[in-house]
Design goal:
With 206 residues, the protein is an alpha+beta fold. Helix content is 32%, strand content 18%.
């Protein structure tokens, strides 16, 4: 993997480009594909088969389940994809790959074979800044009870979650949150030391 890809500079394109998707990946259950890490790799291949170009893939990290006590530790990572998909098409493809690998949506934040979360599409804000900000500011207790009834971009919690930001920093450290106004690198630097200590590297990308 070239240094340009590691830093998110792709053939002249930057992560703010709207053909670039940032996706968080995670698993804390075995699946027919194998271990959580093997399941994630199967998910990456599923996205490739659906037409996504995998421009960068982070290392894998072991992270505690969120919220605490919600299940076994996760294997987490991040992907940078280049596609021609709309936001709606991207979400449909991600959900289809999850279903192919045995994901069944039951309890919110429960154990799962695979999680493919659309974090951002370039610098897109969807549906609008006020709506995204309202979901960003939602207290944790309400987050556990409520889920948006539409796609929110950027993902309303990505700016505060170490298990998302640390893998994302591997592949897109210079992506700037269009509402917060800080880069991934800056958001990682702002995280508490104890939160960062929980994110343990497992491997280089396969």
């Amino acid at each position: 993997m070239s240094q340009d890809t590691i830093t998110g500079k792709i053939s002249g394109k930057l992560p703010q480009d709207r053909s670039i998707l940032l996706v968080a990946v995670g698993s804390n259950m075995d699946s027919p594909s194998g271990t959580p890490a093997e399941t994630i790799l199967s998910g990456v291949e599923g996205l490739r088969q659906r037409g996504a170009v995998i421009r960068a893939q982070s290392r894998f990290f072991q992270t505690p389940a969120f919220p605490p006590g919600a299940g076994p530790d996760f294997v987490n990572g991040a992907l940078m994809l280049e596609t021609g998909w709309t936001a709606t098409e991207a979400l449909a493809h991600l959900h289809a790959v999850e279903a192919d690998l045995g994901r069944v949506r039951r309890a919110r934040w429960g154990a799962r074979a695979i999680d493919l979360d659309l974090l951002a599409i370039g610098d897109t804000v969807q549906p609008d800044t006020a709506t995204v900000t309202r979901w960003m500011d939602l207290p944790l207790a309400q987050q556990q009870q409520k889920a948006p009834d539409r796609l929110i971009l950027p993902h309303p919690r990505l700016h505060e979650r170490a298990f998302v930001l640390v893998p994302l920093a591997d592949i897109a450290p210079d992506w700037v949150h269009p509402i917060v106004g800080r880069s991934v690198r800056q958001m990682v630097d702002a995280l508490p030391a104890d939160a960062l200590a929980e994110i343990v590297p497992l491997s280089a990308p396969s």
